[in-house]
Please model this.
Amino acid sequence: MKIFVGAKPDRKHIQALIRCKHPDSEPMLDMFRKSLEETKLALIAADDPVRIHRLQGRAEVLSDFLEAVSKSPEILERVK
Model:
């Protein structure tokens, strides 16, 4: 979660992540989950070091975002 939350979470940012958990945002989260799975599959097949590093970075960002959304209510409790 270090990309989207950081050491000193901003309350407004965490509230924005919580809004991503709203049922209307579920298609967006599904899109991110699907993109993460596609990135993992591409990473398995990649043989070029530059491509591997780029895919690893993409996977890290997608995974970090999904984790930040998932844990945002817990983080907000700590920020209060």
